[in-house]
Design brief:
By secondary structure, the chain is an all-beta fold. It is about 0% helix and about 35% strand. It contains no helices and nine strands. The protein has strands at about 60, 65, 75-80, 85-95, 95-105, 110, 125-135, 140, 145-150. The strands form two sheets. Strands 2, 4, 5, 7, 8 and 9 form a six-stranded mixed beta sheet that branches. A three-stranded antiparallel beta sheet has the order 1-3-6, with no helix packed on it. The protein is elongated and about 45 Å long. It starts with about 60 loop residues before the first strand and ends with a strand.
Length: about 150
């Protein structure tokens, strides 16, 4: 388990020791590079008004692939660096609706061979790859992340 500690002293000394006076700013934002399962922020005389959940970074490559079995770009790879315990669901949809769904937990490293649930190669065209991530312990869902790929011959 990785622990990240953030310590801030806001206001005129923060009541105990000399600190950084940011009272004139009025708002401070925190952005985390990776989703974290358990995050506790301790503040002295500061109120949190809102917490914004951001979608994870979804990497999909190549943007165009041809699942024709010739050994060259026959699949697409979707990756996202997710904390252990986070659950993910990837839905691939085309013009005819949903063609494939994958589920898992922890880091995402998914290879799609351009086939639907029945094992048939999907028709040529543009497909949406949607990632949904939930934290079952916190009961939270991050915003969906969407990317697109083109299936060619």
């Amino acid at each position: 388990m990785r622990t990240t500690t953030l310590a801030f002293k806001l206001g005129a000394g923060a009541g105990r020791t000399p600190g950084l006076d940011l009272s004139h700013i009025g708002e401070v934002a925190f952005f985390l590079e990776k989703p974290m399962r358990e995050t506790t922020l301790f503040f002295d005389r500061i109120a949190l008004s809102a917490v914004e959940l951001r979608p994870p970074d979804l990497s999909v490559a190549p943007a165009t692939f041809s699942p024709n079995g010739d050994g060259w770009q026959d699949e697409v790879v979707a990756r996202a660096d997710l904390a252990e315990g986070l659950r993910w669901e990837v839905t691939i949809s085309g013009d005819q609706g949903e063609v494939r769904k994958f589920v898992g937990q922890g880091g995402l490293d998914l290879r799609w061979d351009g086939r639907d649930e029945g094992g048939e190669v999907v028709p040529l065209g543009r497909y949406e790859i949607a990632l949904r991530v939930t934290d079952p312990d916190a009961g939270a869902e991050l915003p969906r992340c969407i990317s697109h790929v083109e299936v060619t011959d």
